[in-house]
Amino acid sequence: MVNEAWKSGVLLAILASFTFSIMNALVKEASATLPASEIGFFRGVIGSVLVYLLMLREKVSFSNQDVPMLLIRGLLGALYLVCYFFSIAHIPLADASILAHMSPVFIILISAVFLRERVATPIWLLLGVVIIGAALIVRPFSYSTYSMYAAIGLLGAFFAGGAHVAIRQLSARHHAYEIVFYFLSIAALVSIPLMWTDFVWPTSEREWICLITLGVVSLLGQLFLTKAFTHESAAIVAVTRYIGIVFNVAWGWLFWSESIGTLTIAGGCLIVAACILLSRLKGA
């Protein structure tokens, strides 16, 4: 019989992935008329306000501990957000989603370099498989503006990996709301200079609905994901989150008639399979 806590953790992870896929679709829609950095700014501002209100309601105070690490986590998360939104705006949702899901690879590499964690031989072999899969999507051997946007998405996965390593160091001593607040508020600040020269004030009802809904939905996704980690192991949650790629493929096909190329399918299969095995090895 399946344990209820396991079911709860897996279902919460699926719900988080579905919610984040809605956020991605909203970013794709808003990016038709608004710069990606501006979308990141509004997402950060709206999310920061909502998290702060939650902190007030639940009487969660800011800590004086680990402020430099909180700032680093916020900066890495902000850079990930900008890169991810930029890639979503310029390449199919499926491609951007697959590249973003490479963050576990960078978590392992960053942990090995900065935390001196030992990396077993099977993990190094799987990392090689992931690199091959990424090359099939980014296609550096046939450079174009498309591959540049994909490379930016890959860079975002690196920043996400660094942010998750920082979260692992902070989560034992800080409330999730505080960590998320630093992330969202710094994301808004980082976006200001990036959007300074091409800021477009939202004028249509569609743009405002996209931005406000995006802020609310992305915060819900963060809360669902945090809750999932409290119910289940990180390895199982990480594996379950790969269903988000399916959701993103569905939105891209349904709303923007996006098709998936053969190289993307091949690269995606390699990345997903290798990352699932990596998560299981790390969770063993």
Task: Characterise the protein shown here.
It is found in: Membrane. InterPro entries: EamA_dom, EmrE-like. Keywords: Membrane, Transmembrane, Transmembrane helix. By secondary structure, the protein is an all-alpha fold. It has one domain (4-283). The protein has helices at residues 4-30, 36-57, 67-90, 93-100, 103-114, 121-138, 145-170, 176-195, 205-231, 234-240, 243-256, 262-283. α2 (36-57) crosses α9 and α3 runs antiparallel to α7. The radius of gyration is 18 Å and the shape is globular. Residues 1-6 have low confidence and may be disordered.
Average pLDDT rating: 83
How many DSSP E strands?
0
Alpha carbon gap, first and last residue? 22 Å
Succession of helices and strands: HHHHHHHHHHHH
Q: Which value, in Å, is the CA radius of gyration?
A: 18 Å
Low-confidence stretches: 1-6
The domain tally reads 1
Shape: globular
Note the total helix count: 12
Tell me the structural class.
Answer: mainly alpha
Strand content: under 5%
The level of helicity is over 70%
- Major sheet: size, sense and barrel closure? none
